[in-house]
Design a protein that fits this description.
Elements lengths: L3 H27 L7 H17 L22 E4 L8 E3 L2 H17 L8 E7 L2 E8 L2 E7 L5 E4 L1 H4 L23 E9 L2 H13 L8 H9 L4 H5 L4 E11 L6 H10 L9 E3 L2 H14 L7 E8 L2 H7 L1 E2 L2 E2 L2 E5 L4 E13 L4 E13 L2 E7 L3 H7 L6 E5 L7 E5 L24 E4 L2 E4 L5 H12 L11 H9 L14 H5 L6 H14 L1 E3 H7 L7 H10 L3 H5 L3 H5 L6 H12 L1 H13 L2 E3 L9 H4 L8 E5 L6 H10 L3 E2 L9 E4 L5 H9 L2 E3 L1 H11 L3
Helix pairs in contact: 1-2, 12-13, 16-17
Length: about 700
């Protein structure tokens, strides 16, 4: 039996263990700079669990072992905030931001002469506002924002979030010092994008309801009556402000953020401080461009007057402060109505249901259609003709229907049934997993897409053979497969709309040039299902010519790393078709050829060694016609790299429409600026044929 002296020693040992674990949690979850291995951390944690199990009377609420979640609650209580959590006025236009700046300056001037005004800019996290109450450094109460005056008390759930400290210190780096008697910390709970996708996948695999977006996932997770469910969710937390702070005064918002970081909280790395509203506006554009690169959802920036004294003088109007605004990005989600559901047939014959919408502006574009992905998604979301739906458009992503507002149903909505016959050619449709697929080899819808793919940048790269030209060629029955392109004459092309002699000759020259290609490009151009450019390179590396690939067995194919049974069967099925044999024979008659490879010799020297953009760095800014990932891939395939910011080491800045602050930086640093057309000319000139 342990005596009083021995028990004090045990108590101190447990306290030291907790300090160490708190410190290493801070290094791992907040700074992302661990100092010990996972195994060493686990040993510390198990040691603490062992002693707390032996001495349960020494377990404290701030112990790291208490994050796992307590027993389920019957209901949440309420918590009244000592200082209201005000909502922010939202603005969307540059002019409105300048008006805000003018109002602030005018008001402060009227209040006795305004000193220079400084702004702190923070990302507006698309999550849930929370308040954390720390008494003598220990998390005592955690609550939601609620109506600003009163929120729900969800302390047990917030304890499970690893980036919320259970105990804070005046110097988190050394885990020492005297904590404040009372500190109210405000911040945002959210779920990182990648972890949200993993969570939804896991829920789907278990047959459970999936979340529409990361914010809904965070809201649904943090308000679970069973804290153990909350503990299983990948919740995160950014702190951005304080309420009451007994024993501590702050002169600026910047000082508040520095203090929060110092005592152990995670702060967004995107926070900046500016002297002018023009710099704020520039930064808004810069953050908007970075938006899709972030691992958390933001819907704008928050602009705050930095000086606390100036904030106090400005005060608030109703439920919003005069000293801060939310400068939002164009909306990426909107409500609209489904007028119809139609089916599109893709290059591989996949039938995709598409919602025809009442036009709605989202993210700077008017959206008329949104994908429903496939039959299973259509059924899971239960989208019907006439439904009111939430539509999302993010970056270069095709607009999609996120969810249905079922409370708005009137009973007149109609369920949609996927067809058993191809809506384009009438051929039979088979179902493969969630996808329905047309098996008609001469389907006109597939033919257009097949030819576009055949002529695309990563395939045979036939310049001038754009979408409108291909559509006319197919619609006028001038081609029945991709090989027919090489038998077109100048007089054929001149029959097309808006086709002049020079344009026709340019296409013929491009067709002639594309006849000499590489094996990997030709394989990719054929449009074999599941065979993209990477898999095409693997096949070209394995087989010395197309004939060897055509004669390959199932075992030959699956012996190649990264090629599995499904891809192998797809390749075999492709080469078994009579239409494939006819296509290849026609390509041979047209004079299409490729460099042969020695078996097992790896990529051709001409293809592997030629990296004309090696050492060159590109930065993209503004809107360009191609998806950023495609542009990035072009640069990387030619040996270059793409950076997210401009520096003296940048070689080219590709500026599209509405180019942001990166363009200003490029001008200031003297970096070469080119438009999209110049970029394409540059990469085409350098590109390997």
């Amino acid at each position: 039996m342990v005596g009083e002296e021995g028990k004090e020693a045990v108590k101190q040992y447990i306290a030291d263990l907790r300090k160490k674990i708190h410190y290493h949690n801070y290094r791992y979850y907040v700074l992302n700079e661990p100092e010990i291995s996972d195994a060493e951390y686990d040993r510390l944690f198990k040691e603490l669990e062992k002693f707390e199990s032996k001495y349960p009377e020494l377990v404290t609420p701030d112990s790291p072992t208490q994050r796992v979640g307590a027993k389920p609650l019957e209901a949440f209580g309420t918590y009244k905030h000592s200082i209201p959590l005000l909502s922010l006025n939202s603005v969307y236009e540059e002019e409105e931001v300048r008006d805000f700046d003018e109002r602030v300056r005018k008001f402060l001037g009227e209040a006795g002469g305004a000193a220079a005004i400084e702004y702190v800019v923070e990302p507006k996290i698309d999550g849930l506002a929370m308040e954390l109450i720390y008494k003598n450094g220990v998390l005592s109460v955690g609550s939601t924002r609620g109506d600003g005056e009163t929120g729900e008390e969800i302390t047990q759930n917030l304890r499970t979030i690893k980036t919320i400290p259970l105990r804070i210190f005046s110097d988190a780096a050394s885990a020492s010092g005297v904590p404040l008697p009372l500190l109210e910390v405000r911040g945002e709970v959210f779920i990182p994008v990648r972890k949200f996708k993993d969570l939804n996948t896991a829920l789907g695999e278990k047959g459970e309801k999936m979340f529409a977006n990361p914010r809904n996932a965070a809201a649904g997770s943090v308000r679970q009556l069973d804290p153990r469910v909350t503990a299983s969710r990948p919740l995160d937390f950014f702190a951005y402000g304080v309420g009451r702070a007994e024993g501590k005064e702050f002169s600026t918002q910047w000082e508040v953020l520095a203090y929060l970081r110092r005592i152990g909280f995670k702060i967004s790395p995107l926070i900046r401080r500016f002297d002018t509203i023009q710099d704020v506006i520039r930064y808004h554009e810069e953050v908007k461009e970075k938006r899709d690169e972030l691992d958390y959802e933001i819907d704008g920036i928050v602009v705050k007057v930095n000086s606390i004294k100036q904030q106090e003088r400005l005060g608030a109007i109703s439920r919003s402060p005069r000293w801060a605004i939310a400068y939002k990005f164009p909306a990426r989600e909107e409500f609209t109505r489904v007028e119809d559901i139609v089916v599109q047939v893709g290059r591989t014959g996949a039938l995709t249901p598409v919602a025809v919408l009442e036009p709605v502006p989202i993210g700077g574009a008017t959206i008329h259609r949104a994908t429903l992905h496939n039959e299973d998604e259509l059924r899971r979301k239960d989208v019907r003709i006439g439904d009111t739906v939430v539509v999302k458009r993010a970056g270069d992503v095709i607009p999609e229907v996120v969810s249905v507002i079922k409370s708005k149903r009137t009973g007149t909505e109609k369920e949609f049934k996927m067809p058993d016959r191809c809506p384009v050619c009438g051929a039979e449709v088979i179902k493969e997993g969630p996808i329905r697929r047309c098996i008609g080899v001469s389907c006109e819808a597939q033919l257009k897409e097949r030819i576009k793919h055949f002529a695309s940048l990563r395939a045979l790269d036939i310049e001038g053979l754009g979408e409108k030209v291909v559509e006319q060629l197919v619609d006028r029955k001038m081609v029945s497969d991709a090989a027919d392109l090489f038998f077109l004459t100048k007089s054929d092309l001149l029959r097309l709309d808006r086709m002049g002699g020079k344009s026709a000759q340019n296409i013929l020259d491009a067709l002639e040039k594309s006849k000499k290609t590489t094996l990997s490009r030709l394989i990719h151009a054929l449009g074999i299902r599941h065979v993209g450019d990477h898999t095409a390179s693997l096949l070209a590396d394995k087989f010395r010519d197309l004939e060897s690939l055509r004669n390959a067995s199932y075992d030959d194919l699956v012996s190649i790393p990264e090629i599995g049974p499904e891809v192998a069967r797809s390749i075999l099925l492709f080469f078994e078709q009579e239409s494939t044999k006819e296509l290849l024979a026609k390509l041979e008659r047209a004079g299409v050829s490729y460099e042969k490879k020695e078996a097992g010799a790896g990529l051709l020297v001409a293809e592997a060694e030629r990296k004309p953009l090696e050492g060159k760095t590109f930065v993209f800014t503004g809107r360009i016609s191609m998806p950023r990932e495609v542009a990035k891939d072009i640069v990387e395939r030619l040996g270059g790299k793409v950076a997210s910011s401009v520096s003296k080491r940048t070689d080219y800045v590709v500026a599209g429409e509405e180019a942001g602050s990166k363009l200003d930086t490029a001008v200031r640093l003297g970096v070469k600026i080119i438009d999209e057309e110049m970029f394409l000319r540059l990469t085409r000139k350098q590109k390997i044929n």
